[in-house]
Amino acid sequence: MDVSIIGAGGDVGRQVAAHLIAERVVVSSQRLQLVGHENGKSSQSLFGLRADLLDAYAETSPEIDIALNPEEITADIIIFAAGATVPTEPGKALDRSALGKINKPIFESYAKAIAEHGHGDEIILIVSNPVELGVEIFSRYLE
What we know:
This protein is α/β, with parallel strands linked by helices. It contains four helices and five strands; from the N terminus they run E-H-E-H-E-E-H-E-H. It has helices spanning 11-22, 42-56, 96-117, 131-141; strands spanning 3-6, 31-35, 63-67, 77-80, 123-126. The protein has a five-stranded parallel sheet with strand order 3-2-1-4-5. Helix 3 packs parallel to helix 4 (131-141).
């Protein structure tokens, strides 16, 4: 089983990656793909995350690779943790409608790329908000 984490450079994505390796959900004979955005800050940080995970779990680490374009995603299970999130700073608000407007094109670009370049049997787990919007968009592309 190969796993891709879209948004692996974010807070949630990093935790998911570490947990999958630490709990041996993804084992040494499998592959973990860390997915970021080519022009985003993750284009640099994912290489550091990869090195940290390989150092920390040298004995049990799966193969870890990095994808910076949606077309490069290939896995049996894809965890979608990308996009904007609700701010945690006091006084900063972002309602679900605004969050949906920001994340909709992100959901669509990845759903379209997976539909065009995937193998057709992927399982997609959406953890980005608004979840229901992400599920609706992915279900449109991946029937």
